[in-house]
Design a protein that fits this description.
about 15% strand; single chain; alpha/beta
Length: about 200
């Protein structure tokens, strides 16, 4: 589903370049004492403990749009996604603390979050079982807002471990939601006909 979101974004942006980051194959380092000491240290330069953080932040700053594909693990984000978040949500760099609260320093851009879950969290399951808690979507919205990103779209694929029919229905619902939120651009010939002569 995330690949379909990327394909739709490419259709709307000529000469788009896609940067793919597989957090499961190349997980970001966990925040440790060296990282904490470096962000609280004197400004200027990039200490070794912040090199990965700086690379990931620059990657995010250069993106016109971001697609995050993630499973829901125990009602929230998986550990590798949390590690990425901890690297990019950095005081003095991507947000500042003010008397009125945290203020993001990054420019807003669309972020598409594709969430796959074995259970249901937006409502009851088809059998009527109550929905499970969802700490993932409000958490991702909150952390992205902290750094200045508010244009967040969530596509859900629920019950994907409950059989092929349910998984196919989840994909169909996500495709319909994507179609409504990000319709394909008009073909070039239609745009040419509509242009004033």
């Amino acid at each position: 589903m995330a690949e379909e979101v990327v394909a739709r974004l490419i259709q709307s942006r000529q000469n788009a370049e896609v940067v793919f980051r597989d957090l499961s194959a190349d997980p970001p380092p966990l925040v440790d004492a060296r990282f904490s000491a470096a962000i609280l240290g004197p400004p200027g330069g990039t200490p070794p403990a912040l090199e990965v953080s700086e690379m990931l932040i620059r990657e995010l700053e250069e993106a016109n749009a971001v697609v995050i594909a993630t499973p829901m693990h125990n009602y929230c984000v998986p550990a590798v996604l949390k590690a990425w978040i901890d690297q990019i949500v950095r005081i003095h760099r991507t947000f500042v603390s003010t008397p009125g609260g945290k203020v993001g320093k990054l420019a807003d851009r669309p972020v598409w979050v594709v969430v796959a879950s074995g259970g249901w969290f937006t409502g009851p399951s088809p059998s009527g079982a109550p929905s499970q808690p969802d700490f993932l979507t409000p958490y991702v919205r909150a952390v992205l807002s902290t750094i200045g990103i508010h244009d967040v779209h969530v596509l859900t694929l629920e019950g994907v471990t409950c059989g092929a029919d349910i998984a196919e229905a989840a994909i169909a619902r996500a495709r319909a939601a994507l179609e409504r939120a990000l319709p394909p651009p008009l073909p070039r010939e239609v745009l040419d006909r509509a242009a004033p002569s």
